[in-house]
Amino acid sequence: QVQLVESGGGLVQAGTSLRLSCAASTRTFTMYAMGWFRQAPGKERECVAAISRSGENSYYPDSVKGRFTIFRDNAKNTVSLEMNDLRSDDTAVYYCAAAEAMNSIYEMVPVANRYKYWGQGTQVTVSA
Predict the structure, then answer these.
(1) Pairing of strands 92-100, 122-127
(2) How far apart are CA 57 and CA 51, in angstroms?
(3) What per-residue confidence (pLDDT) applies to 108?
(4) Share of the chain above pLDDT 90, in %
């Protein structure tokens, strides 16, 4: 069992920045690829960032590319999401997730059904 706890959400104005953090309570953090997902009411859950076990490879969809950055600290068992130039349509609950990636330290996992463990989510609201 891997426990994930997100923090850092809140209400911000459009054009500002916010950093989300996720703490993992596992003794084998480096065995998991990590990702950040978001879900707004009436919309499907989407991956906004994914990072490989090694931290060397990352993925971003076009909707956030150039604005969001994912990074992990394997020594501290944390993964973070830096969000810049936030827009109203970034408003959603943001989830941290961990995926088993036993065959590669370089694999990015951008799809939700590959993730086994999920945090409780943190609300991000961006006012126009």
Answers:
(1) antiparallel
(2) 6
(3) 93
(4) 95
d(CA 84, CA 15): 7
SS (H, E, C) the chain: CCCEEEECCEEEECCCCEEEEEEECCCCHHHEEEEEEEECCCCCCEEEEEECCCCCCEECCCCCCCCEEEEEECCCCEEEEEECCCCHHHCEEEEEEEEECCCCCCCCCCCHHHEEEECCCEEEEEEC
Partners of residue 47 on adjacent β-strands: 37
Taking every pair of C-alpha atoms in the chain, what is the biggest distance, in angstroms?
44
Q: pLDDT tens across 23-70, in order?
A: 999 999 999 999 999 999 999 999 999 999 999 999 999 999 999 999
Angle at 122 between CA 74 and CA 70, to 5 degrees: 35
- Count how many Cα atoms sit within 13 Å of the Cα of residue 80 in the half-sphere of its side chain: 12
